[in-house]
Amino acid sequence: MRKVKWGVLGVAKIAVEKVIPAMQRGEASHVAAIASRDHGKARAAADRLGVERTFGSYEELLADGEIEAVYNPLPNELHVPWTIRALEAGKHVLCEKPIALDADEARALIATRQRTGRLVAEAFMIRHHPQWRRAKELAADGAVGEPRAIQTFFSYRLLDPENVRNRPPGGGGIYDIGCYAILSARYIFAAEPTRVAATIDRDPNFLTDRLAGAILEFPGGRHSTFTVGTQLSAHQRVTIVGDKGRIEIMIPFNAPPDRPTEIAIDTGADLFGGGRRIERFGVCDQYTLQGDAFSRAIIDGTPLEFPIEDAILNMRVIDALFRSAKSRSWETV
User: Fold this and answer.
1) Which residues contact 188 (CB under 8 A, 6 or more apart)?
2) Residue 1: which pLDDT band, with cuts at 50, 70 and 90?
3) Distance between CA 221 and CA 217 in Å, rounded?
4) Residue 246, number of CB atoms within 10 A of its CB
5) CA separation for the pair 33, 287 (Å, rounded)
6) Where are the alpha helices (DSSP H) in the chain?
7) Which of 66, 146, 171, 267 satisfies CB 3.0 to 4.6 Å to 275 for a cystine?
Protein backbone atom coordinates (compact mmCIF):
# COMPACT_ATOMS: atom_id res chain seq x y z
CA MET A 1 0.00 0.00 0.00
CA ARG A 2 1.23 3.45 -0.83
CA LYS A 3 1.55 6.00 1.97
CA VAL A 4 -0.21 9.36 2.06
CA LYS A 5 2.20 12.29 2.40
CA TRP A 6 1.24 14.43 5.40
CA GLY A 7 2.24 17.93 6.43
CA VAL A 8 1.89 19.25 9.99
CA LEU A 9 0.99 22.83 10.91
CA GLY A 10 3.09 23.89 13.89
CA VAL A 11 5.09 22.12 16.55
CA ALA A 12 2.44 21.65 19.24
CA LYS A 13 3.38 19.25 22.03
CA ILE A 14 0.74 16.71 21.03
CA ALA A 15 2.07 16.75 17.47
CA VAL A 16 5.77 16.27 18.19
CA GLU A 17 5.40 13.94 21.18
CA LYS A 18 2.46 11.75 20.17
CA VAL A 19 0.89 12.17 16.74
CA ILE A 20 3.89 12.51 14.41
CA PRO A 21 5.88 9.59 15.90
CA ALA A 22 2.73 7.44 15.83
CA MET A 23 1.84 8.31 12.25
CA GLN A 24 5.40 7.61 11.12
CA ARG A 25 4.87 4.03 12.29
CA GLY A 26 1.71 3.69 10.23
CA GLU A 27 1.11 1.46 7.25
CA ALA A 28 -0.58 4.16 5.17
CA SER A 29 0.78 7.45 6.56
CA HIS A 30 4.05 9.29 6.10
CA VAL A 31 4.75 12.66 7.70
CA ALA A 32 6.78 14.41 5.02
CA ALA A 33 6.92 17.98 6.30
CA ILE A 34 6.52 20.25 9.33
CA ALA A 35 5.82 23.97 9.17
CA SER A 36 6.27 26.59 11.87
CA ARG A 37 6.31 30.36 11.89
CA ASP A 38 9.68 29.87 13.60
CA HIS A 39 11.64 27.87 11.04
CA GLY A 40 14.21 26.94 13.66
CA LYS A 41 11.55 25.18 15.72
CA ALA A 42 10.33 23.31 12.65
CA ARG A 43 13.88 22.22 11.79
CA ALA A 44 14.62 21.08 15.35
CA ALA A 45 11.41 19.03 15.51
CA ALA A 46 12.00 17.54 12.06
CA ASP A 47 15.57 16.52 12.92
CA ARG A 48 14.41 14.85 16.11
CA LEU A 49 11.56 12.99 14.41
CA GLY A 50 13.18 12.07 11.13
CA VAL A 51 10.95 14.32 8.99
CA GLU A 52 12.77 15.35 5.83
CA ARG A 53 11.24 18.72 4.95
CA THR A 54 10.47 21.93 6.84
CA PHE A 55 8.83 25.24 6.09
CA GLY A 56 9.05 28.63 7.80
CA SER A 57 5.36 29.39 7.30
CA TYR A 58 2.08 27.51 7.09
CA GLU A 59 1.43 29.07 3.70
CA GLU A 60 4.55 27.46 2.23
CA LEU A 61 3.48 24.02 3.36
CA LEU A 62 -0.01 24.47 1.90
CA ALA A 63 1.53 25.55 -1.42
CA ASP A 64 3.59 22.37 -1.69
CA GLY A 65 2.07 20.11 -4.33
CA GLU A 66 3.45 16.88 -2.85
CA ILE A 67 1.61 17.24 0.46
CA GLU A 68 -1.73 15.42 0.24
CA ALA A 69 -3.06 15.78 3.78
CA VAL A 70 -2.59 18.18 6.66
CA TYR A 71 -2.72 17.57 10.40
CA ASN A 72 -3.81 20.74 12.23
CA PRO A 73 -2.87 20.84 15.95
CA LEU A 74 -2.87 24.64 16.22
CA PRO A 75 -4.55 26.47 19.14
CA ASN A 76 -8.32 25.95 19.15
CA GLU A 77 -9.17 29.39 17.81
CA LEU A 78 -7.05 28.64 14.71
CA HIS A 79 -8.62 25.29 13.91
CA VAL A 80 -11.32 26.45 11.52
CA PRO A 81 -9.40 29.27 9.77
CA TRP A 82 -6.39 27.12 8.91
CA THR A 83 -8.44 24.04 8.15
CA ILE A 84 -10.40 26.05 5.61
CA ARG A 85 -7.19 27.39 4.09
CA ALA A 86 -5.77 23.87 3.85
CA LEU A 87 -8.93 22.50 2.22
CA GLU A 88 -8.93 25.36 -0.27
CA ALA A 89 -5.29 24.53 -1.05
CA GLY A 90 -6.45 21.06 -2.08
CA LYS A 91 -5.37 19.22 1.06
CA HIS A 92 -7.36 16.74 3.11
CA VAL A 93 -7.40 17.79 6.79
CA LEU A 94 -7.39 16.00 10.11
CA CYS A 95 -7.93 18.71 12.72
CA GLU A 96 -7.41 18.43 16.46
CA LYS A 97 -10.34 18.62 18.83
CA PRO A 98 -12.35 20.64 19.56
CA ILE A 99 -13.00 21.33 15.91
CA ALA A 100 -14.04 24.93 16.62
CA LEU A 101 -15.04 27.39 19.33
CA ASP A 102 -18.74 26.89 18.58
CA ALA A 103 -20.98 24.94 16.25
CA ASP A 104 -21.72 27.88 13.97
CA GLU A 105 -18.02 28.31 13.25
CA ALA A 106 -17.65 24.58 12.63
CA ARG A 107 -20.49 24.48 10.09
CA ALA A 108 -18.36 26.48 7.67
CA LEU A 109 -16.28 23.34 7.18
CA ILE A 110 -19.19 21.52 5.55
CA ALA A 111 -19.50 24.13 2.82
CA THR A 112 -15.73 24.15 2.28
CA ARG A 113 -15.63 20.36 2.06
CA GLN A 114 -18.44 20.38 -0.50
CA ARG A 115 -16.72 23.08 -2.55
CA THR A 116 -13.24 21.54 -2.51
CA GLY A 117 -14.07 17.83 -2.52
CA ARG A 118 -11.47 17.18 0.18
CA LEU A 119 -11.90 15.09 3.33
CA VAL A 120 -12.02 16.78 6.74
CA ALA A 121 -12.45 15.23 10.19
CA GLU A 122 -11.90 15.86 13.88
CA ALA A 123 -9.01 14.01 15.55
CA PHE A 124 -10.70 11.98 18.29
CA MET A 125 -8.25 9.09 18.40
CA ILE A 126 -10.06 7.14 21.13
CA ARG A 127 -12.71 5.86 18.70
CA HIS A 128 -9.98 3.93 16.89
CA HIS A 129 -8.65 2.15 19.99
CA PRO A 130 -9.75 -1.50 20.39
CA GLN A 131 -10.78 -0.94 24.01
CA TRP A 132 -13.42 1.59 22.97
CA ARG A 133 -14.55 -0.52 20.04
CA ARG A 134 -15.02 -3.43 22.40
CA ALA A 135 -16.80 -1.33 25.05
CA LYS A 136 -19.26 -0.14 22.42
CA GLU A 137 -19.80 -3.73 21.22
CA LEU A 138 -20.40 -4.99 24.75
CA ALA A 139 -22.84 -2.18 25.51
CA ALA A 140 -24.76 -2.80 22.28
CA ASP A 141 -24.85 -6.59 22.74
CA GLY A 142 -26.42 -6.45 26.20
CA ALA A 143 -23.37 -7.67 28.13
CA VAL A 144 -24.42 -5.37 31.00
CA GLY A 145 -28.11 -5.32 30.14
CA GLU A 146 -29.44 -2.02 28.89
CA PRO A 147 -26.80 0.75 29.33
CA ARG A 148 -28.54 3.49 31.31
CA ALA A 149 -25.80 5.71 32.75
CA ILE A 150 -22.24 6.73 31.97
CA GLN A 151 -19.95 8.40 34.49
CA THR A 152 -16.70 10.05 33.41
CA PHE A 153 -13.86 11.67 35.35
CA PHE A 154 -10.94 13.29 33.57
CA SER A 155 -8.41 15.62 35.17
CA TYR A 156 -4.84 16.90 35.13
CA ARG A 157 -2.91 19.69 36.87
CA LEU A 158 -1.66 22.54 34.67
CA LEU A 159 -0.81 25.94 36.19
CA ASP A 160 1.40 27.45 33.46
CA PRO A 161 -0.17 30.78 32.42
CA GLU A 162 1.58 30.60 29.04
CA ASN A 163 0.10 27.25 28.08
CA VAL A 164 -2.61 27.61 25.43
CA ARG A 165 -4.95 25.48 27.55
CA ASN A 166 -4.97 28.28 30.13
CA ARG A 167 -5.55 31.14 27.69
CA PRO A 168 -8.84 32.44 26.26
CA PRO A 169 -10.58 32.20 23.91
CA GLY A 170 -9.86 28.52 23.26
CA GLY A 171 -8.56 27.36 26.63
CA GLY A 172 -10.25 25.63 29.53
CA GLY A 173 -11.25 22.15 30.58
CA ILE A 174 -14.48 21.74 28.64
CA TYR A 175 -12.83 22.50 25.31
CA ASP A 176 -9.75 20.42 26.10
CA ILE A 177 -11.08 17.32 27.89
CA GLY A 178 -14.81 17.75 28.45
CA CYS A 179 -15.17 17.17 24.72
CA TYR A 180 -13.97 13.57 25.29
CA ALA A 181 -16.64 12.92 27.92
CA ILE A 182 -19.31 14.20 25.54
CA LEU A 183 -18.01 12.28 22.54
CA SER A 184 -17.60 8.98 24.38
CA ALA A 185 -21.15 9.13 25.79
CA ARG A 186 -22.56 9.85 22.33
CA TYR A 187 -20.44 7.00 20.96
CA ILE A 188 -21.58 4.40 23.51
CA PHE A 189 -25.24 5.41 23.51
CA ALA A 190 -25.26 5.89 19.70
CA ALA A 191 -27.54 8.87 20.30
CA GLU A 192 -27.55 12.61 20.83
CA PRO A 193 -28.32 14.29 24.18
CA THR A 194 -31.51 16.34 24.23
CA ARG A 195 -30.67 18.72 27.07
CA VAL A 196 -27.79 19.45 29.45
CA ALA A 197 -27.02 21.13 32.75
CA ALA A 198 -23.56 22.36 33.74
CA THR A 199 -21.66 24.10 36.49
CA ILE A 200 -18.31 25.80 35.90
CA ASP A 201 -15.62 27.26 38.17
CA ARG A 202 -13.23 29.62 36.40
CA ASP A 203 -9.68 30.50 37.34
CA PRO A 204 -9.73 34.17 38.45
CA ASN A 205 -6.53 34.94 36.56
CA PHE A 206 -6.73 32.73 33.47
CA LEU A 207 -10.52 33.23 33.10
CA THR A 208 -10.79 29.71 31.71
CA ASP A 209 -12.86 26.91 33.23
CA ARG A 210 -10.73 24.89 35.64
CA LEU A 211 -13.45 22.66 37.08
CA ALA A 212 -16.67 21.70 35.33
CA GLY A 213 -19.42 19.22 36.01
CA ALA A 214 -22.32 18.30 33.76
CA ILE A 215 -25.26 16.00 33.20
CA LEU A 216 -26.34 15.10 29.68
CA GLU A 217 -29.85 13.71 29.23
CA PHE A 218 -30.29 11.22 26.39
CA PRO A 219 -33.52 9.82 24.92
CA GLY A 220 -35.16 7.05 26.91
CA GLY A 221 -34.25 8.45 30.30
CA ARG A 222 -30.54 7.65 29.91
CA HIS A 223 -27.93 10.09 31.11
CA SER A 224 -24.21 10.78 31.28
CA THR A 225 -22.46 12.73 34.03
CA PHE A 226 -18.92 14.02 33.95
CA THR A 227 -16.37 16.01 35.92
CA VAL A 228 -13.33 17.55 34.26
CA GLY A 229 -10.59 19.57 35.93
CA THR A 230 -7.38 21.24 34.84
CA GLN A 231 -6.01 21.99 38.33
CA LEU A 232 -6.54 18.61 40.00
CA SER A 233 -4.39 15.52 40.35
CA ALA A 234 -4.34 13.42 37.19
CA HIS A 235 -7.11 10.85 36.96
CA GLN A 236 -9.16 9.14 34.26
CA ARG A 237 -11.99 6.63 34.43
CA VAL A 238 -15.18 5.87 32.49
CA THR A 239 -17.92 3.63 33.91
CA ILE A 240 -20.81 2.45 31.76
CA VAL A 241 -23.64 1.09 33.91
CA GLY A 242 -26.52 -1.07 32.77
CA ASP A 243 -29.32 -2.87 34.59
CA LYS A 244 -27.29 -6.11 34.64
CA GLY A 245 -23.73 -4.94 35.14
CA ARG A 246 -21.12 -2.34 34.28
CA ILE A 247 -18.10 -1.75 32.07
CA GLU A 248 -15.09 0.16 33.40
CA ILE A 249 -12.46 1.62 31.08
CA MET A 250 -9.36 2.05 33.21
CA ILE A 251 -7.32 4.48 31.08
CA PRO A 252 -9.95 5.68 28.65
CA PHE A 253 -8.35 8.67 26.96
CA ASN A 254 -4.55 8.59 27.21
CA ALA A 255 -4.22 4.89 26.51
CA PRO A 256 -0.48 4.05 26.61
CA PRO A 257 1.10 3.07 23.27
CA ASP A 258 3.71 0.80 24.88
CA ARG A 259 1.70 -1.54 27.12
CA PRO A 260 -1.61 -3.42 27.09
CA THR A 261 -4.84 -1.78 28.22
CA GLU A 262 -7.74 -3.28 30.14
CA ILE A 263 -11.45 -2.93 30.60
CA ALA A 264 -13.47 -4.63 33.33
CA ILE A 265 -16.92 -6.14 32.93
CA ASP A 266 -18.74 -6.69 36.23
CA THR A 267 -22.14 -8.31 36.68
CA GLY A 268 -22.60 -6.54 40.00
CA ALA A 269 -23.00 -9.88 41.77
CA ASP A 270 -21.40 -8.34 44.86
CA LEU A 271 -19.34 -5.34 45.89
CA PHE A 272 -16.09 -7.31 46.11
CA GLY A 273 -15.52 -8.19 42.45
CA GLY A 274 -17.20 -11.58 42.52
CA GLY A 275 -18.78 -10.93 39.14
CA ARG A 276 -15.79 -9.14 37.63
CA ARG A 277 -13.75 -10.22 34.61
CA ILE A 278 -11.00 -8.42 32.71
CA GLU A 279 -10.48 -8.10 28.98
CA ARG A 280 -6.98 -7.13 27.91
CA PHE A 281 -5.96 -5.48 24.63
CA GLY A 282 -2.57 -5.80 23.01
CA VAL A 283 -0.12 -2.98 22.59
CA CYS A 284 -1.23 -0.46 19.97
CA ASP A 285 -1.07 3.27 19.36
CA GLN A 286 -4.43 4.95 18.89
CA TYR A 287 -2.79 7.82 17.01
CA THR A 288 -1.31 5.39 14.50
CA LEU A 289 -4.72 3.79 14.00
CA GLN A 290 -6.36 7.19 13.58
CA GLY A 291 -3.84 8.40 11.01
CA ASP A 292 -4.02 5.21 8.97
CA ALA A 293 -7.83 5.22 8.98
CA PHE A 294 -7.82 8.73 7.51
CA SER A 295 -5.06 7.88 5.03
CA ARG A 296 -6.90 4.79 3.80
CA ALA A 297 -10.02 6.88 3.19
CA ILE A 298 -7.90 9.12 0.96
CA ILE A 299 -6.33 6.19 -0.87
CA ASP A 300 -9.49 4.11 -1.29
CA GLY A 301 -12.00 6.92 -1.69
CA THR A 302 -14.19 5.39 1.00
CA PRO A 303 -16.35 7.60 3.24
CA LEU A 304 -14.94 8.56 6.62
CA GLU A 305 -16.39 6.60 9.52
CA PHE A 306 -16.64 9.84 11.51
CA PRO A 307 -17.27 12.75 9.13
CA ILE A 308 -17.20 16.43 10.05
CA GLU A 309 -20.93 16.37 10.79
CA ASP A 310 -20.15 14.31 13.89
CA ALA A 311 -17.77 17.01 15.11
CA ILE A 312 -20.49 19.61 14.74
CA LEU A 313 -22.88 17.50 16.80
CA ASN A 314 -20.27 17.33 19.58
CA MET A 315 -19.77 21.08 19.36
CA ARG A 316 -23.49 21.70 19.77
CA VAL A 317 -23.35 19.98 23.15
CA ILE A 318 -20.38 22.10 24.24
CA ASP A 319 -22.30 25.23 23.25
CA ALA A 320 -25.27 24.12 25.35
CA LEU A 321 -23.02 23.46 28.37
CA PHE A 322 -21.62 26.98 28.27
CA ARG A 323 -25.16 28.38 27.98
CA SER A 324 -26.27 26.29 30.95
CA ALA A 325 -23.42 27.49 33.13
CA LYS A 326 -24.53 31.07 32.45
CA SER A 327 -28.28 30.52 32.78
CA ARG A 328 -27.92 28.13 35.75
CA SER A 329 -30.61 25.96 34.22
CA TRP A 330 -31.15 23.11 31.76
CA GLU A 331 -30.42 24.02 28.17
CA THR A 332 -31.67 22.26 25.04
CA VAL A 333 -29.00 20.96 22.68
Assistant:
1) 135, 136, 139, 147, 150, 240
2) confident
3) 7
4) 22
5) 18
6) 13-14, 20-24, 39-49, 58-63, 79-88, 103-116, 130-140, 173, 179-189, 286-300, 308-327
7) 267
Beta-ladder partners of 217: 195, 223
Burial class of residue 45 (count of CB atoms within 10 Å of its CB; 0-12, 13-18, 19+): buried
Q: What is the pLDDT of residues 113-145, one digit of tens each?
A: 999 999 999 999 999 999 999 999 999 999 999
- What residue type is assigned to position 2 of the chain? R
Is this model's pTM higher than 0.85 or not?
A: yes
Q: In what order do the strands lie in the sheet with 53-55?
A: 53-55, 29-35, 4-9, 69-72, 92-96, 120-123
Contact (Cβ atoms closer than 8 angstroms) between residue 95 and residue 308:
no
Residue 108 in contact with residue 84, Cβ under 8 Å? yes
Three-state DSSP at 200 gives strand
- Alpha carbons 158 and 103: distance in angstroms, whole number: 27
